[in-house]
Amino acid sequence: MCLGETLTHLAACTPPGAGEVIVAVGGSTDGTAAIARRRARLILASDASRAGLLNAGARAARGAALLFLHADTLPPADYVAAIDATLGDPGVVGGAFDFEFREGRRQLRAIAALNRVRCRLTGNFYGDQGIFVRREVFERIGGFPRRRLFEDLVFSQAMRREGRTVLLRGRRVRSSGRRFLQPDWARAVALITWLLLLHTLGRDTEGYAARYHAARATGGTG
Fold it and tell me: I need a labelling partner for 202 at 20 to 30 A (CA). Which of 33, 55, 152, 158 fits?
């Protein structure tokens, strides 16, 4: 799974004139910019944090609605129509898709099922679910917070304070589960669960960001 595959998928399922694909890159040296330049509108961001990249892409976008995707995440083929229909309700400010892993491994199915339950119980969305939002609401919130951890979670909570959000149940984005196919996958799940608990309890999790991102860089979590 790579950015090129995601861009190919988006080109195939985005109706002409229905949207623009933007890739924000900051400090990448692995050829990401070259791949993006061929298939999308490339934005070079000065802030290479995830929040910084998401905000840079949103600032460059021209549409009235914004969809945020990870580079290895494929939205459903009818994602444009699904978002348009959802935002056709003026009371809805945004939402996200259901989630599953592309690989059919047993532990991945279990993790995805737990994530779906967690999302339904809390009403919170996460970055790998394909969060979408009205531009005016995004700007009112101030974009993604400049955090090293849980910028997507905090943003989704801010969306809910602005109005009704919708989980598109049954319409699933598909992401690579490679980070949970490592030998220490159970430890990775335990770490993110612990951090989510701390966040729910109102504890500051930023001090754990270095540990989290180190694990993610080695395929442990993210």
Answer: 55
